[in-house]
Amino acid sequence: MNPRLDRLQPYPFEKLRLLHQGVTPSPQWSAISLGIGEPKHPTPPFIQQALAAHLDGLAVYPSTVGSLDLRTACAQWAQRRYRVNLDPQSQVLPVNGSREALFALAQTVVDASREGATVVCPNPFYQIYEGAALLAGAQPYFAAVDAQRNFAVDWAAVPESVWQRTQLLYVCSPGNPTGAVMPLDEWKLLFELSDRHGFVIASDECYSEIWFGSQPPLGGLEAARQLGRTDFRNLVYFTSLSKRSNVPGLRSGFVAGDAALIHAFTRYRTYHGSAMGPAVQAASVAAWSDEAHVEHNRALYREKFAAVLPLLQPVMDVRLPDAGFYLWAATPGDDAQFSRGLLEKYNVTVLPGSYLAREQGGANPGRGRIRMALVAPVDECVEAARRIAAYCSELNPSPRPSP
């Protein structure tokens, strides 16, 4: 067996299952899960129809690079969304969802023979980053977050000695679980560090189409364009249809950026066997070519956040994220015990924040927080918020002071 497998930690949802073992939820309440970030809004019918209309593609071996129609649709969407010009032939590659591609990129770019090979990622973080680093033979380094800036990553606090060893940096903006979005000055800092030390930036932006303000979140490709880096040097952008179009089972997304990196990644994926089926490609073309369903999806999330936050803010430290569909809320007491007690008493599932982070300087930055995924229908989210608020009031009868 590969000895690196032994370095992998249990996945957060496995830890959650063990935490909830032996708990019998109160039969007074129906079950509501805010634990897993799995979109629950209906898949648009036109995407289903496009998939069904191309089932003859099941009789064909797909190519790793995908059809030119799909790569063109992805490039055109990026041009509309970020005002960037991508060459569909050399700067775009379809992937089977962002998760597998985020993992595979580390296997492509990390040279484990170099002493101290390091992969930097946020903390809290999406656990694929850590697993990808470990299985590529690198050491993960967890960059601290600043709670005073809505848990944005403090990239400037990463020591220069770490950057010197870094081969890959995972950026997640909007962030999971915090929803923080990186501004242009942070992108400028990371690009300068990448130029100095030669590391690759993997920009995970799968939550980019769920936002609440008047302007969409800044993305890595867009930041590069604004800073005159139109070759997207050392940058690979990742996105997915899962959250944007409510098709997590379709397993469809794309990567884009530095042509040399896309070329190397394509070579790796040819051996890895990661080609997207023709029927999925056709459905993906339809999805990337339409924005009306995305605007409707965004409106549903805005409705949920607007309804839920007034119920929770009197009893919890929680705020509207910059983007995404998570709430990152402080708990009265231990986050794991809060999750267990909430399930037992009110039959609501939430994910302990400590399961999404690692110890750093003697502290876990996720401890004392929970992640709530507002993926259920509006009425279920509101009902869950009422139960969570009631549980918080029982644990801490004194109301929070008004902000």
Automatic annotation (TrEMBL):
What are the GO BP annotations of this UniProt entry? lysine biosynthetic process via diaminopimelate
Give the keywords, sorted.
Aminotransferase, Transferase
What this protein needs as a cofactor is: pyridoxal 5'-phosphate
Molecular function terms in GO for this entry? pyridoxal phosphate binding; succinyldiaminopimelate transaminase activity
The domain of life for this entry's organism is Bacteria
Family matches, as PANTHER family: AMINO ACID AMINOTRANSFERASE (PTHR42832), L-GLUTAMINE--4-(METHYLSULFANYL)-2-OXOBUTANOATE AMINOTRANSFERASE (PTHR42832:SF3)
Q: What is the designated name of this protein?
A: Succinyldiaminopimelate aminotransferase apoenzyme
